[in-house]
Amino acid sequence: MPAGTSVTLRDVAQAADVSLGTASKVMAGRGGVSARRAESVHAAARALGYRHNGIAADLRRNRSNSIGLVIPDLRNSFFVDLIHALETFASADGYFLVLGHANENPATEMERIRFVLSRRVAGMILLPCQGHDHALAELRQCHVPVVMADRVNDSMPANTVATDSVHAAYTGTQHLLSLGHRRIAFAANTLDLTNTRDRVTGYSRAMEEAGAAPQLILCGTENDRAHPAMLEALLRPERPSALFTSGTPMTLAALSAIADADLHLPSEVSLLSFDDAPWMSVLSPHISAIRQPVEAISRAIWQLMLAELKGGSAAAPSHLSFKAELRPRQTTVAWPHRG
């Protein structure tokens, strides 16, 4: 190409010896093209220095194949698993995710939402930090279909998908109670979050039914505060015989606090994690956990989004809830003192 000349998609098609339509399909990531032809197009694009402008293509056809996804915390393995599953479902239908990370900060969340919207996304999947009014107002103003997940409840004026956190925490607490534990502490981030409040409700209900006093450890949303809060509880004369953590970051902090308190897991303190992760069944001892049905939740989120994209929104929002699974492993054992 002569110096200063812009490379066009037609140039790529000619270099690859394919039609313009075939080159367009390949560069847009759509199917229906053989692997040999697709590689020929990509090779020609690399050789010519061509870069596909997805936003311009969306403007031309007045349709976007991008979906926004804004999440609270990339350090939480549940959110990472959710991203992975959602990307799989979306790409199977010819859509691609534009990710925004809110870092547990509502102000950052709004910045990420606005950035993602500037990419002309066809829809938005939002896992809110705290509250939802500010985000929904922005999305409604832009007339973007939205599905909310995880930190949600049935009162929200949008389609929602979540785990039944009340039932899951109730089941987990009953498991610890059945092993003879009565001094069970629940380590949570903040009661400002809908799902955390639900988990505390399930835990408290099981404790009260058993005639045991709930012990709530509030750690905040900043990970460096969780360790000292749990360590303080573990160093008390009447320390908990079991810790039930409200999420993976809390579980990591609990492991560190147990070690710093010079306690042995699980003979001196049992540990149950709300949320599972692959490393929990690799560490010794293996960590007992509540496993959220990530694939089912992701599939439901995507099906609701797809229905909205196709114009099939119901008059009233759908609120879907899924049961979690208790996975007892080596860190929850019988408490010999029964008190």
Features:
single chain; 339 residues; alpha/beta; Rossmann fold; 3 domains; 6-stranded parallel sheet; 44% helix
Biggest sheet: strand arrangement:
2-1-3-4-5-11
* Tally of discrete structural domains: 3
CATH level-4 homologous superfamily of the largest domain? Response regulator
Overall shape: elongated
Structural class: alpha/beta
Ends apart, CA distance between termini = 81 Å
Strand content: 15-25%
Summarize model confidence as the mean pLDDT: 89
State the CATH class of the largest domain. Answer: Alpha Beta
Looking at the structure, the CATH topology of the largest domain is: Rossmann fold
Ranges where pLDDT stays below 50 over 5 or more residues in a row are none
Number of strands: 12
Instruction: Bin the helical content.
Output: 40-55%
CATH architecture of the largest domain: 3-Layer(aba) Sandwich
Q: Helical stretch count? A: 12
Radius of gyration (CA) equals 24 Å
Q: Give the H and E element order.
A: HHHHEHEHEHEEHEHEHEHEEHEE
Report the major sheet.
6 strands, parallel
What does this entry show, briefly?
This protein has 339 residues and is an alpha/beta fold. The protein has helices at 9-16, 20-28, 35-48, 54-61, 77-92, 106-118, 133-141, 165-178, 194-209, 223-234, 248-260, 294-309, and strands at residues 66-71, 96-101, 123-126, 146-149, 159-163, 184-188, 215-218, 242-245, 270-274, 288-291, 319-322, 325-327. The chain starts with 8 loop residues before the first helix and ends in a 12-residue tail after the last strand.
